Amino acid sequence: MTPPPAFRMQPLRMIGGLFDMLSGGGGGELIAPEKALKGRSQKMANIDGLRHYVLGNKLEEVPEGFKVAVFGNGCFWGSEKGIWRFPEGIHSTAVGYCAGFTPNPTYEEACSGQTGHTEGVRVVYDPSKVSFVDILRWFWEAHDPTSGMGQGNDRGSQYRSGFYYFDEDQKRLIESSKEAYEKQLGRTITTEIAPASDYDKYGGLWYFGESYHQQYLAKPGARPYCSAQPQGVSLAPFEEWAPKDLVEEYAPTLPDGFWKTHAPRKGCSVVNSPNELIEVGDW
Length: 283
Known about the structure:
The protein is 25% helix and 13% strand.
C-alpha cells in the first residue's frame, strides 16, 4: 500500500539530496539556460482547483485588487508557513519552483540543479490589509541572505535566496531594504533580485510544486524540517530605509508587538509553531 503523501516527504527529501550529489545540484553555480533540462508543456497535476490546506482558498486564484509576491529563501516548507500564519490579508500561499529555465519542472528535476529553479513561495495578498513590506521583512528575517547557493545543510542553486518583483514599487522596496539589512548584518547579501518578466522567455517565473508539498507542515505526519538560518537581526524601521515617496502607501500593517512576539528566531522556529493563523492582538 502506498503511504499518503504526507508520510512520503522524508524519503523524498533524501531522494532530493541524492539528486544533489549525483547531478550537481549541490554545486555553487547556476546552470546556463541552454544547458537546462527541456521540461514539458503539461502543467503540474492536481493543482487546478486545489485549495489551501489551512486558509481554504484556491491556490491559483488572484482576486481583483489583490497582489502577488514571489520569493525563495531555503526549503519552501518553512518559508511558506511563516507567511500563511499572518493575522490578516493573506489569501493564499503556495510552494513551487521559480526563477529557472525549464518549463513545468518536477521536484526531482529542480533538486538536480539542472533546471535553474530555486524552491519558492508565491503569496497572494490583499494590500489593503497587509503591506508588501511586512512580507518583505519576514523574508529577510526568516533566513540567512548572505549564504550564497544554499541555506544550512541544503546546498545548491535550488536553495538560493531570491526575491522577484512585479512592479517598480516592489523593486525599489526590495533593493532599499536589502541595502539596509546588509549594513545591519555586516556581510554581503547574495539574494537574487530580478523582474518576473525576465523569465517570460522560459515559460514564466513561477511553477507550482506537487500537491503533496503544498502546506506540507500543516499536514498529518509532517516532518518538522527547515533549512533556513534566521540571523536573529530585525530589519531596521521602515522609515529609515524606505523611499520617501513610498512611505505612506507601503507603511507596515503589522505592529512592533507582532514582531517582538512572532518574528523568526534562530533555529527556524516556525516549523514548530501552530498551523493556525496568529490572532489579531496576540502579541
